[in-house]
Each structure stands twice: as C-alpha cells, then as structure tokens.
What we know:
By secondary structure, the chain is of the alpha/beta class. 32% of the residues lie in helices and 31% in strands. The protein contains 5 helices and 8 strands. It has helices at residues 10-26, 42-51, 84-87, 103-113, 163-179; strands at 5-7, 33-38, 56-64, 70-78, 91-99, 119-128, 142-149, 153-155. The strands form 2 sheets. A 6-stranded mixed β-sheet has the order 4-3-2-5-6-7, with helices on both faces. It has a two-stranded parallel ribbon with strand order 1-8. Helix 4 links the parallel strand 5 (91-99) and strand 6. Helix 1 (10-26) crosses helix 2 (42-51). The longest helix is centred in the N-terminal third of the chain and has 17 residues, at 10-26. It starts with a strand and ends in a 7-residue tail after the last helix.
Amino acid sequence: MAEEKLYVSYNTVHKLIKKLAKKILDSGFDPDVIVAIGSGGFIPARIIKTFINRPIYAVGISYYGIDHKHREHPTKIQWIDEVQGQLRGKKVLLIDEVDDTRATLAYCVGELLSYEPEEIAVLILHNKIKQKDVEFPPEIKRYYPAMEVEDVWIKYPWDADDIDEQERLEKEMFERMKKEGKELLI
C-alpha cells in the first residue's frame, strides 16, 4: 500500500492508555510523578493521570527550530529545573506518543537522570519497529509501549484538522485490517 498511515482517534488513545495504566500498576511500578514530553506526550499524560493520579510536569524537547529545520540533536524548549529537587529519589514515569528514532526520549532520560531519581520508566503509545538512533542507558529497566507498529506515518487526533474525518479514517483502517486478517489495535 502506497504511503500507509496509521490513524488514531482520541477514543483509541484513551483505551490504550487505560490498558497501559493497568500494566504499569500490575508490574509493581508506582510512579511518584509523571513527566510529559510536549507536545505529543501531553494528552496521553493527562489521560493516564485519570488512572494513576500523580502530578504532571511538562517538558518541551524539539528536533526542529522555529524555522522548521531539523537539528542534529534534540534541544530543550521548556524544562523543569525548578522542580529538580522534587525528583531526587522519586519514581518518574516519562511519557511521549511515539518512539521513532528514540533520540528525544533518550535525551530526556539523560537529563532526568541528572536529577538522581530512584527510577525512570518510559511509556509510549507506539514503538516503531526499526533500528533506533540511540539506545536507552542501562538505568531504564521499564519500557511500556502500548503498541509495536511498522515504520509508518502515525496520524494522531491532536494533529487532525477535522476530527470527524480522523475518526472515519481510523474506522476504515480497522475495517481494512479486519478484512486482511490483521490484528486490530485495541
């Protein structure tokens, strides 16, 4: 299929996060705080707060400048230096929407490790099955992807111009997958 895309609705995101919240708690990880990577991690972080009620700190990491040109490495746009003392010895749940190259996630993990948390776990909606540019440091022992997906373009609902169209396209994608005998997302 030419230019295959994975369409995701808010409803699907909510269901995936609910399953992950149960998986996290069942694994014995009980985070003290949630750190959301913006902008893709903001909505999943807020949804998981419904199931794991912890404070959320927001960070902004970007691979692109305001000129929309790709940089060589991620950079901080917004950070949480003022709460670094509150992270020492704490369990941190780091959230983003997708693990594509892993560069942003690994950069954020490295920065958070300097605050000496007890543990950092990583939660993402989609892990793209492909070679990553960076590996996590050995301190990362808990990694929670909701789904493993091929290296396709993912259309999240928060990027949709027309949310009704987004839901229609996701439904069509589910129907096509079902006809092809492929596993459904949720």
